[in-house]
Amino acid sequence: MKKPMTTQRLVVGIFTWIVFVTWLSPPPVRAQENVRNGDIDGSGIIDISDPLALLGYLFLGGPPPTPLVCPTPGDCGIDEPPASFESQYYGSLDLEKAAREQYGFLARLVSTGEHLYDWKARVGREDKPLDIRRAVTNQYGAGWSVVSTGVHRFDWKAFRLSDPDFVVLPVMLVASDKFWDIAGVARAVIRYRSVLARVQGWYQNRVEGRLRFLQPLVLSTSLTSAQWNELSAMTAQESTRYVLLNQCIQSHENLLPAPGNNLRVALSVYTGDSADVWLGAASTGRYAMAPPRATSLDCPALGPLDSFCADAAYAIGHELGHTFGLGHTCDEYPGHPRCSNSIMQTGRPPEAILLQREICILLASPFFHPLTGAGGGVAMESPVAALLGDRR
Length: 392
Fold this sequence. Notes:
It is a single chain. It is elongated, with a radius of gyration of 26 Å. The strands form 5 sheets. Strands 11-8-12-14-13 form a 5-stranded mixed beta sheet, sandwiched between helices. It has helices at 7-24, 49-59, 95-103, 132-140, 182-207, 225-234, 243-255, 307-323, 329-332, 356-363, 383-387; strands at 85-86, 90-91, 108-111, 119-123, 126-129, 145-148, 156-159, 167-174, 210-211, 213-214, 217-220, 263-270, 282-284, 287-289, 368-369. It is built from 11 helices and 15 strands. The chain has 2 domains: 15-59, no CATH class; 85-89 and 160-391, Collagenase (Catalytic Domain) (3-Layer(aba) Sandwich), CATH 3.40.390.
């Protein structure tokens, strides 16, 4: 009579098969440029031989996985996806209607310049100021805030912070002496986006989950450029390490409600061309903050980053990591040989890595949304790639 297959016999059989296949398999190719993440044996393709080679390495003393060698810094054959900044949560305002509501049906809307605050309600021969906050409340209701995406006259928006589902809200605080510089602020927003784009693309490649960013908002502040830059310099002292972060949060909450669980706020400050003002990156709770350098750089959309752009992307990416629940890598995983290469230690994008345990923490976060394939379905990560995420 044939004996039933037991769990023990099944495990022994599978183990024997692995030993046999591993013994027959050719030795893996050593480091080469066309090796992709998950190509354990360096064959140039990802197939069943890769998990077998991994099991052989882990349990049978086989050769280690073929290391990745990037032909250029930050390029392992995977292009960072194009940046995407969402604006569907920002509502437009009917300022003509607001002028009539505030000053009567004979009032008409006029602009005396190109700035946000150059809109007026003309009543007879007199130009009267518009109450934009009142306009937002009348047109959208309670719970909506008045915001802007720049300081040009067409940049006013309405926004309800509870609407987005688990997104990053970038906010650029503007020094009081720069708030009337329409072109300068617009240029700073573009520069800030160029840094944020590299952070977004880097996270998507490393985690293989989509981290959503909103279009940056612009908020006025009462501090001058010199005062903001001085706060950055003060963070070099341990006793005043968080003065820049605290002032950024205060300036944000002077104009907007504190973020809920659905938001992470990425703060930076525009103080002019301040690429050399780089001290003070920090985070707490739902806020991540990068110093003025982040609004002063034109960073490329793809490819290597110079030291300034790499540092700005690191500041935002590292501090956002803390808001998602990551600690400093070498403190959390002191025995890992590559802990210092993580963005949560000292690794700079685009070369920085995440350890697989860090990736698992981020994938469990609602802020990392599933990637969708060309057909609209969810693009699943291969099991081999999941096993070797910290080789990237």
